């Protein structure tokens, strides 16, 4: 159900952009709830309730996959992030494996920042620093190249969704350990019932869609 909603929501926004010249990226005051209200037919047709929570998690992952497969929806998603961050002096966009590698690079290119991949163990060559964390279905680890980020750089962390928040916390810890300033975390989807936002210790989080 989340998959159907995500596709319908984003495609409805794109259709309204074409038919009514709705400038999603041209109005910095256009927030996520105004975006949702601009697509009432997508909202009114679907329910967000999904149980159990693990089904919600993997359903949201599938939603992002289909967003990527739709050229128009993918472009609109990237454009909304770029509009938010183009004037925030971001110098590093840190993308979390794996879908952060898809959303992160176009955001980095458009904002003039460098892209830094945060990868699972044994994926990066050379010297790395590591951060272990607990996630929805076990334990994992993120790694980053030593020297990829310098002290004082302004970083944006990008992933497809936030569930329990463990992955985003690990990413922020990696960046802050080398002296970077994490400006914000950005995700396409949030699962607020899993309360991941509460684990971010007050760090700002920006999402395009909430799924309950």
Automatic annotation (TrEMBL):
**One BP term from GO:** adenine salvage
- Is Coiled coil one of the keywords UniProt gives this record? no
Q: Which keywords has UniProt assigned to this entry?
A: Cytoplasm, Glycosyltransferase, Purine salvage, Transferase
Could you name the Gene Ontology cellular component terms for this entry? cytosol
The pathway this protein participates in, as annotated, is: Purine metabolism; AMP biosynthesis via salvage pathway; AMP from adenine: step 1/1
Q: Which reaction does it catalyse?
A: AMP + diphosphate = 5-phospho-alpha-D-ribose 1-diphosphate + adenine
Task: List where in the cell it is found.
Answer: Cytoplasm
According to the entry, every stretch annotated as the Phosphoribosyltransferase domain falls at 82-193
Query: Main localisation, per the record?
Result: cytoplasm
Q: List the PANTHER family.
A: ADENINE PHOSPHORIBOSYLTRANSFERASE, PHOSPHORIBOSYLTRANSFERASE DOMAIN-CONTAINING PROTEIN
Family of the protein in this entry: Belongs to the purine/pyrimidine phosphoribosyltransferase family.
Assembly behavior: Homodimer.
Name of the molecule in the record: adenine phosphoribosyltransferase
Q: Which organism is it from?
A: Punica granatum
């Amino acid at each position: 159900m989340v998959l159907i909603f995500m596709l319908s929501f984003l495609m409805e926004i794109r259709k309204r952009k074409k038919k009514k010249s709705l400038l999603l990226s041209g109005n910095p005051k256009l927030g996520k709830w105004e975006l949702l209200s601009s697509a009432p037919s997508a909202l009114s047709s679907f329910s967000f309730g999904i149980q159990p929570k693990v089904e919600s998690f993997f359903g949201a992952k599938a939603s992002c996959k289909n967003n990527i497969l739709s050229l128009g929806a993918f472009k609109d998603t990237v454009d909304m992030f770029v509009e938010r961050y183009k004037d925030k002096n971001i110098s590093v966009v840190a993308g979390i494996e794996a879908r952060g590698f898809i959303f992160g690079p176009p955001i980095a290119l458009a904002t003039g920042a460098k892209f830094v991949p945060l990868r699972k163990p044994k994926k990066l060559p050379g010297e790395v620093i590591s951060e272990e964390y607990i996630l929805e279905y076990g334990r994992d680890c993120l790694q980053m190249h030593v020297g990829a980020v310098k002290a004082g750089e302004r970083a944006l962390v990008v992933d497809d969704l936030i569930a329990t928040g463990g992955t985003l916390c690990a990413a922020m810890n990696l960046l802050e350990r080398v002296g970077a300033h994490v400006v914000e975390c950005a995700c396409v989807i949030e699962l607020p019932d899993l309360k991941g936002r509460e684990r971010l210790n007050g760090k700002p989080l920006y999402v395009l869609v909430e799924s309950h």
